[in-house]
Amino acid sequence: MNYTEFDSYIRKWIFTHASMPVAEADLVQIKPFTQARSAQLWCEHVSSQSSDADHFEKGDWAFDKKIWSDAIDWQQAWDSDEPELPAELLADIKWEDNTTIFFCYEKYNIIETKWGVFKRNWKNFLFFDDGPLLLGRKQNQVVWFQSNGTFQLATRP
Description:
By secondary structure, the protein is α+β, with helices and mostly antiparallel strands. It has six helices and seven strands. The chain has helices at residues 13-16, 24-27, 35-45, 75-79, 87-92, 115-125; strands at residues 31-32, 72-73, 100-106, 109-114, 133-136, 141-145, 150-155. Strands 1-4-3-5-6-7-2 form a seven-stranded antiparallel sheet, sandwiched between helices. Strand 3 and strand 4 (109-114) form a beta hairpin. The protein is globular. This is DUF2947 domain-containing protein. It comes from Photobacterium kishitanii. Pfam families: DUF2947.
């Protein structure tokens, strides 16, 4: 089994909290992976050495500072009443809404969903902003959200 039951997901409440509820049609498309499947995906797509984004090491593609863009603010858009992702992010990420994405909190906590679902509910996903990575399946672009309210873009090798 690749997925954890949504009702058992430890962070389920960030998608069901009364102040930021996610529509039922989107909730069914938010699929947390099991810890084992998360670890496998992390090793395949992110790092076989580091367990979270704060500890990338030499040899990890993400360790190379030259591949990352300058930091761009996301916090201001998150704090606003407007639901849209920051314009700078939408300008750079041109994925179709049905693109499968992996939202990687850390090695053992990854969620699969669709780009359209993420765009509509990005504030929920970023409730925990401790360095998550956003990867598109079969896409080379990656977004690294920082806890200081900024994000950086890169192209994976």
